[in-house]
Each structure stands twice: as structure tokens, then as C-alpha cells.
């Protein structure tokens, strides 16, 4: 029986970003340098497949520093940690390696600088997300106020409307964030913002590619984890850009084939912590069901690379 034809649009850029690449490399190099086990506080990146692979090599994932022994190295995840965490590790004389993405660290430094200048911070981000917790934890309690939506801006209680600055989580929807920023600027005209959006290049590029791809597709799948902020934003961006069916899948076994019956075109992209092997697995699954013609939708070329910390570049 002949397979139905399907045009498969593949977004570029998609998948791993430089910060994720670096964080995974840090865990692998730490295992090479110090042997197993190496402890990792919080999932190094939000992807089960990646975490399981590192666990098989000897990484032990924990939620809090208290769960780590003093005599083994600990790595902090790419999402960043509150200042109290490295301070506690140093007090225990632990070896620790910070895998925080440099673009998240940039936001931390920004928040600190504004605070040193006497400004209270407003953070646009998702409550409870490790990146938000880490950024808010750079400053003392009450110095960073969290808003998620334009509605939150209307009720946020600030110390002095003349002395405010804002930062954002790096993985938000570019369009949604612009709405929140507009609300902040309308209510607090004196608020100071970053020179350039805190939303990182990778988040922005992946969303742009989805916007270009979505109108061409009957359906769209985003390969990524359910706890991955940037992956969930890609689903929302796709739906908003006119794709009728946009869904998040962790891997090919999650594809709902019945929901896709009758489609002529599918768009595929992946969040910044999803490895290429899972993207290929999803594409292969479509090749089994359809006679696939692949087309790349490329909106940017990425060549960003971040160095790993020096401690891992010198022998043990």
C-alpha cells in the first residue's frame, strides 16, 4: 500500500543552544576529571533523555545541595542558582562547578548592578521556574518582585516608582514579554530596562523560525520536555502564528497519529535542551507513516560557542 504524501518542514535553528551544549559538556568533563559519582543540583538541562544519559555515565541528580556529600564535586544547572547555593558549597569546602548559561549569568550581573545603584528590581518570568528562582535569589528577599502578565503589573506594589529596573527570564515568548514590558513602562515611566532584551538569542531565533514555518503547516510538533520553558513557548508561538495543531512531544512514542490523520504538511522544531537524536527519531517516525518530502525553513544561522570553566580545562 502506498504511503500518503507529506511535506515535512524542519525549523532552523532548532534544538541545542550554546548554553545547553556547554552545560552537558561540563558534566561529561567533570566525570572524566574526577570520576563517578559527580552530583548535579537540579536537572542539568530540562530533558529526560539527556539527564538519563548522564545518569548512566555516573551523574547523580539531586534537588538540593544538602543531598550532596562534602567530598564529591557538585555542578549547578544551566538555569542558574540563588547566591546562597555557591556560598553554602564554599562553606562546606566542596568542589563545585557552575554550569549556569553565560546569558543567564549576564542577567544576574545586571540585577546586581541595578540593585547596587539603589533600584528595586521587577522580574518578568514564571514563578517557580529554576531560572526565575536563581535570578531572584541574587538579591535579598523583597528586592526582586515577580510579574508574569500585564495584569500582574497593575497590582505590583513597589517601594518607589521612580527607582525601578526590570530583567526577564531568558526563555520567554518574545511577543508576550513585549506586552508586559509595555505595561511596566506605561505604569512606571521611569523604569530602567536592559540595553537589549534579556531573552536570549536562541529563544528568539527558535521562535522566529516557528513563526516563519507555522503558516505553511497543517500541524506542528515541538520536541522538548514538559518542564522546558522555551519548548512550551514554541508551542504557543506556533499556535499563535496560525498553526491549527501545535503539540509538545518528548519523543516519537508521544506522537498522536490519530490527531494527525489527513494532514498534508507537518512542521518540526525542538526546544533548546532537546538533542538532535530525538528530532531525527521523530522525523524517522513520519517517514514510516508517509512519503515524506523534507524542506528546511531557515531564519538564522547560529555559531555561538561558550567555553567551559577553567577548572575543567586543567588536569586533576
Task: Summarize the topology.
Elements: E1 5-12, H1 18-34, E2 38-41, H2 48-57, E3 59-62, E4 74-76, H3 84-91, E5 96-98, H4 102-116, E6 120-124, H5 130-136, E7 144-147, H6 150-155, E8 164-168, H7 174-187, H8 201-213, E9 219-223, H9 229-240, E10 245-249, E11 265-270, H10 276-289, E12 291-298, H11 310-313
Parallel strand pairs: 1-11, 1-12, 2-3, 2-4, 4-5, 6-7, 6-8, 9-10, 9-11
Helix pairs in contact: 4-5, 8-9
List keywords for this structure.
single chain; 316 residues; alpha/beta; 5-stranded parallel beta sheet; 4-stranded parallel beta sheet
Molecular shape: flat
Question: What can be said about the biggest beta sheet?
Answer: 5 strands, parallel
What percent of the residues sit in helical stretches (DSSP H or I)? Answer: 25-40%
Structural class: alpha/beta
Our count of helices gives: 11
Along the chain, the helix and strand elements come as EHEHEEHEHEHEHEHHEHEEHEH
Radius of gyration over C-alpha positions, nearest whole angstrom: 21 Å
Our estimate of the beta-strand percent is: 15-25%
Question: How many beta-strand segments?
Answer: 12
Q: Please tell me the overall pLDDT.
A: 97
List the strand order in the largest sheet. Answer: 10-9-11-1-12
Which spans of ≥5 residues are poorly predicted at pLDDT below 50?
A: none
- Span between N and C termini? 60 Å
Amino acid at each position: 500500500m502506498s504511503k500518503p504524501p507529506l511535506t515535512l518542514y524542519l525549523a532552523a535553528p532548532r534544538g541545542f543552544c550554546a548554553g545547553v551544549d556547554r552545560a552537558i559538556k561540563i558534566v561529561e568533563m567533570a566525570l572524566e576529571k574526577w570520576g563517578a559519582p559527580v552530583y548535579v543540583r537540579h536537572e542539568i538541562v530540562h530533558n529526560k533523555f539527556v539527564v538519563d544519559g548522564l545518569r548512566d555515565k555516573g551523574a547523580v541528580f539531586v534537588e538540593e545541595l544538602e543531598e550532596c556529600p562534602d567530598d564529591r564535586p557538585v555542578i549547578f544547572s544551566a538555569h542558574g542558582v540563588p547566591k546562597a547555593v555557591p556560598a553554602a558549597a564554599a562553606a562546606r569546602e566542596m568542589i563545585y562547578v557552575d554550569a549556569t548559561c553565560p546569558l543567564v549569568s549576564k542577567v544576574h550581573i545586571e540585577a546586581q548592578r541595578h540593585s547596587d545603584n539603589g533600584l528595586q528590581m521587577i522580574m518578568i518570568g514564571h514563578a517557580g521556574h529554576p531560572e526565575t528562582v536563581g535570578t531572584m535569589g541574587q538579591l535579598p528577599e523583597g528586592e526582586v518582585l515577580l510579574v508574569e502578565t500585564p495584569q500582574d503589573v497593575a497590582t505590583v506594589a513597589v517601594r518607589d516608582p521612580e527607582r525601578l529596573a526590570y530583567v526577564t527570564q531568558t526563555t520567554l515568548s518574545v511577543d508576550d514579554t513585549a506586552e508586559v514590558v509595555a505595561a511596566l513602562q506605561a505604569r512606571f515611566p521611569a523604569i530602567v530596562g536592559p540595553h537589549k532584551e534579556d531573552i536570549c538569542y536562541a529563544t528568539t531565533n527558535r521562535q522566529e523560525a516557528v513563526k516563519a514555518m507555522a503558516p505553511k503547516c497543517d500541524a506542528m510538533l515541538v520536541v522538548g520536555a514538559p518542564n522546558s520553558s522555551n519548548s512550551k513557548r514554541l508551542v504557543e508561538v506556533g499556535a499563535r502564528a496560525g498553526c491549527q495543531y501545535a503539540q509538545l512531544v518528548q519523543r516519537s512514542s508521544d506522537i498522536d497519529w490519530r490527531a494527525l490523520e489527513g494532514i498534508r504538511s507537518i512542521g518540526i522544531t525542538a526546544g533548546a535542551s532537546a538533542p538532535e537524536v530525538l528530532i531525527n527519531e521523530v522525523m524517522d517516525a513520519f517517514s514510516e507513516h508517509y512519503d515524506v518530502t523534507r524542506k528546511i525553513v531557515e531564519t538564522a544561522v547560529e555559531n555561538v560557542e561558550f567555553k567551559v570553566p577553567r577548572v575543567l580545562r586543567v588536569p586533576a
